[in-house]
Amino acid sequence: MNVVLVGTQWGDEGKGKIIDILSEKADYIVRYQGGNNAGHTVVTGEKEYIFHLMPSGILHKGKICCIGNGVVVDPEILLKEIESIKSAGIKIDGRLKVSTLAHVIMPYHRILDKLRETKRAHKIGTTGRGIGPCYADKISRCGIRMIDLLNPAALREKLKDNLAEKNEVFRRVYRHPGFEFASIYPQYLKYGKVFRSYICDTALLLNSAVTKGREILFEGAQGTYLDIDFGTYPFVTSSSATAGGACIGTGVSPVRIDKVIGVAKAYTTRVGEGPFPTEFDADFGKFMRDKGREFGATTGRPRRCGWFDAVTVRQAIMINGISELAIMKLDILDGLKTVKVCTAYTYKGKRFSGFPYDLEVLENVKPVYKELPGWSESTSGIRDYKDLPLRARSYLSFLKDDLKAKISIVSIGSSRKDTLFIK
Ligand code: IMO
Ligand code: MG
Fold first, then answer.
1. DSSP β-ladder status, 28-31 and 216-219
2. Per-residue pLDDT tens over the stretch 188-241
3. Could you identify which of 97, 178, 186, 257 might form a hypothetical disulfide with 170, taking C-beta atoms 3.0 to 4.6 angstroms apart as the criterion?
């Protein structure tokens, strides 16, 4: 079974944990978009790992982990993650594969990301990792790919071309001194040498694996509402975070994908700017942020928090073709008097339940809430879905009915054992 796992909200849904669990059954785990803007947390028995680039399945012995062509790779970060995994005693050689076609984040991408933010009237609140500028170069057809790092002549020419144009922009538009060929070129050639053994044709690798009946798990980063097309544009990331991105970002055809699993938090969070209809007021927001430890795994920024928004998740289910959902961090709702779910919006007095793509509308809608009784009991340590407090089960059952989707996994804590499977 080849499965795509996607976020249904604004990222940080808990994808890392579910990937880690599903990795057990998969043979290959592949990242297909995004870059080190992602922060996927995996808690094993005793240790917490945060991966930005590395597929979260890397902790499972013997599994092949791929960084697909749709990912943008910052070599400095990749090197750091390889080293930290090695130093944790995990064997990585022969198990990590990086696509020849993946685009490379260059020092000027990182700086440009930050400089562009300073000039924007409406800031996006990017992670500042150079993601947007790197994808922009990919689409502009001037990007540098992993395969170029293995070819000194090609790298020289492409880097020279890029710097000639970019330095002009840096100097004239941003009053920045620009970048030296002589410092970037040898550094990136060195990366090429270090990564040589990992770089390969991952599309070929994955397709022959599928032909042999091996199972692939596609690890989405970010979430549906950060998707470049279906997100709350322009407050989005620069890649296709929805399920379709799995095909483009790996070279595996849609006819070979069997299932899409969506991950949703039992409430909602968002980092960075942009519309967020169910956002809590400041006081309750702070209370829930502390309760849920909602601080970015990548940038450490406080996450904005709000009630579960079924309007957005229903739309995400449609766009991604989700047949099963994992509901995460249910335990964070323990002890609340009531819990709310947004089931529709009103705008200028009119009620509707579809997702509005007009940003002006989305920024001004009022959520229509269904208020449900909370549960005072702690869900901590529960090992069977049936043992959840009755009202917690009612909450999940309400979500299931409203979303018209099966909930197959419920998470009540960060470690592997805090996971309930619903038959
Ligand atoms: P994971 O995979 C949450 C957000 C940023 C910003 C916007 C654009 O951990 O769920 P970018 O640097 O990508 O150009 O920033 O997207 N963002 C994320 N928010 N989780 C993520 O990844 C995110 N990756 C990007 O905060 O608002
Ligand atoms: Mg994150």
1. parallel
2. 999 999 999 999 999 999 999 999 999 999 999 999 999 999 999 999 999 999
3. 178
Residue 173 near residue 218 (C-beta atoms within 8 A): no
- Count helices and strands (H / E) in the chain: 12, 20
Measure 11 CA to ligand 1 centroid, in angstroms.
Answer: 7
In this prediction, residue 142 carries a pLDDT of 98
Residue 201 CB burial class (10 angstroms; 0-12, 13-18, ≥19): middle
Indicate whether 186 pLDDT > 90: yes
Whether the CB of 228 sits within 6 Å of ligand 1:
no
Specify the amino acid at residue 258.
Answer: D
- Spatial separation of the C-alpha atoms in residues 183 and 294, rounded to whole Å: 38
Question: Could you give the angle at the alpha carbon of 381 between the alpha carbons of 332 and 270, nearest 5°?
Answer: 20
Q: Which ligand is nearest to the CA of 113?
A: 1
Could you tell me the distance, in angstroms and rounded to a whole number, from the CA of residue 391 to the centre of ligand 2?
A: 29
Q: 419-421 and 406-411: which strand pairing?
A: antiparallel
Q: List all residues 6 or more positions away from 219 whose beta carbon is below 8 Å from its beta carbon.
A: 5, 15, 19, 29, 30, 31, 32, 40, 55, 56, 57
Domains of the chain (ranges, CATH numbers): 3-99+198-261 (3.40.440.10), 103-195 (1.10.300.10), 264-421 (3.90.170.10)
Between CA 15 and CA 246 the distance in angstroms is 15
